[in-house]
Specification:
Oligomer: single chain
Radius of gyration: 24 Å
Bound molecules: zinc ion
Structural class: alpha/beta
Strand content: 15-25%
Largest sheet: 9 strands, mixed
Number of helices: 17
Helix content: 40-55%
Shape: globular
Length: 468
């Protein structure tokens, strides 16, 4: 039976509730507090002794630690004292399971490396089990080194998607379309059907953005390139492609249309918003203008390009033209790791050296490439890439208390020129803590590494057999 409160008591209780709401801190899921907060917002705001309040999947406030403490009480807290708090890093180009080929073949030109080592190794070892084990290893490495979103192009992408969800990472995951028979598709038509089913299965997922990944112009004919692009347009999902990575690709384009790789794709009606082109090394001034005009995003992979001696992408030219440029590691077989802090440092140094101008790619621009500019290149800038209220809570913290990080005059400079992936202390994606105090919570580190080592034995045997 309900008892009715006297009117006066009810009014008093209501008044108390209002007072509490005004003065008492609101309970939220998580507060990251006490660190130097590098927001990467449009103003480049840095907050000394700052905090980030997170509720559910979203950032609700970014302010000084004192102001946040007044307004919010976290059910969980991360103490980020002596740390820098920043948006999770966005790796705009990788092939996650290829971590299992890390160091398998080095010091070779791109085409020799691909045709004589990687494609044969893949033909003998890629399977759903291989892809799952590789993705778990890659996810472990990414969580440990502060990557919270990755764009991927590989086979059995639905397996990669499921492992990504389990690990708690965010991914733009592209099912590969390639002309020759591969482990998950005998023909390009099979691959397109696979991509169609994959997109349908993962559309509207909180963490996974499904995508179509036509491999490159040198591994696909015109009709298949067109069909792949049509498929992603029909589902309104991103298209991921390798573009103008090596000079050999320019020869392929010229044989087909007497055009550059960019002009060739444009002649097919392929280029447009939603396309992320990895590398973009062999492009002319005119190509850059076409890419800008079509709203194509670029993934710059300096370490992979340097290691395969494929050339230097004209990043200052892209930036000047207003093209959205993100950073990537590429697969670990050509890098040989997934450390985005290293990618930032190498990008900054490479282009200074190349242009003989130390002001090229300053630290802030490079940090933006690994965060908000990467988000823009992937079409995700309204959701991720900076620490701002209303965005998804993808947040990392890095230690700045060691000898290598001391002293710290400018946290943005440190993030690019000093910090390593191993300095990451905490990784949060979509409001969920994936790593706390360097302990990964969503993967069993020992089991993941043991499983990867056992796969390496199979890879070694397969490659040995191939060379006989
Ligand atoms: Zn690649």
């Amino acid at each position: 039976m309900r008892t009715r409160l006297p009117a006066v008591t009810a009014i008093a209780l209501a008044a108390m509730a209002v007072v509490f709401a005004q003065n008492g801190p609101r309970e939220v899921g998580l507060v990251v507090t006490g660190g130097t907060v590098v927001t990467v917002n449009a103003a480049g705001q840095v907050i000394a002794n700052g905090a980030v309040a997170i509720d559910g999947t979203d950032i609700v406030a970014v302010d000084t630690a004192a102001a946040i403490a007044k307004q919010f009480r976290g059910r969980e807290t991360i103490d980020a004292s002596d740390q820098v708090v920043l948006p999770g890093l966005i790796n705009t180009h990788t092939h996650a399971p290829m971590v299992l080929y890390r160091g398998l073949a080095d010091d070779l030109p791109l085409m020799e490396w691909l045709n004589n080592y990687i494609f044969p190794a893949e033909a003998k070892t890629v399977s759903p089990e291989f892809v799952r084990a590789g993705t778990r290893l890659a996810a472990l490495e990414m969580i440990e080194s502060g990557t919270t979103t990755f764009a991927d192009m590989y086979y059995f992408e639905e397996e990669i998607a499921r492992e990504t969800q389990r690990a708690g990472l965010r991914g733009v995951l592209g099912q590969t379309i390639i002309q020759f028979p591969v482990a998950d598709a005998k023909t390009p038509a099979d691959a397109l059907a696979r991509a169609d089913a994959f997109i349908t299965a993962f559309k509207n997922d909180a963490l996974v953005t499904p995508a179509v990944a036509p491999h490159a112009i040198y591994t696909l004919d015109g009709p298949t390139l067109r069909a792949a692009r049509e498929l992603s347009k029909r589902h309104n999902v991103p298209t991921l492609i390798h573009l103008a990575e090596s000079s050999d690709e320019t020869k392929v384009a010229q044989e087909r249309r007497a055009a550059s790789p960019t002009a060739y794709l444009d002649s097919l009606g392929f280029l447009g918003p939603g396309v992320l082109a990895a590398h973009g090394v062999w492009v002319s001034e005119q190509d850059i203008q076409v890419l800008k005009m079509r709203g194509v995003g670029i993934s710059h992979n300096p370490e992979s390009n340097m290691k395969t001696a494929s050339g230097i992408a004209p990043v200052p030219g892209y930036l000047k033209a207003g093209v959205a440029v993100g950073l990537g590691t590429d697969g670990a077989a050509s890098n040989n790791d997934l450390d985005m802090f290293e990618a930032m440092r190498v990008a900054a140094l490479l282009h200074k050296h190349d242009t003989k101008d130390p002001s090229t790619l300053d630290a802030r621009t490079v940090l933006e490439m690994a965060t908000i500019r990467g988000a823009r290149a992937l079409g995700l800038e309204t959701r991720i890439g900076s620490l701002e209220p209303g965005k998804r809570a993808d947040v990392i913290t890095v230690s700045t208390s060691g000898a290598r990080q001391t002293p710290m005059y400018d946290p943005v400079s440190h993030l690019v020129y000093v910090i390593h992936g191993d300095d990451v202390r905490n990784t949060v994606v979509n409001g969920r803590i994936l790593m706390r105090g360097r302990k990964v919570l969503t993967l069993d580190e020992g089991a993941v590494i043991a499983e990867a080592r056992s796969w390496a034995e199979k890879v070694r045997a397969a490659v040995k057999q191939e060379r006989k």
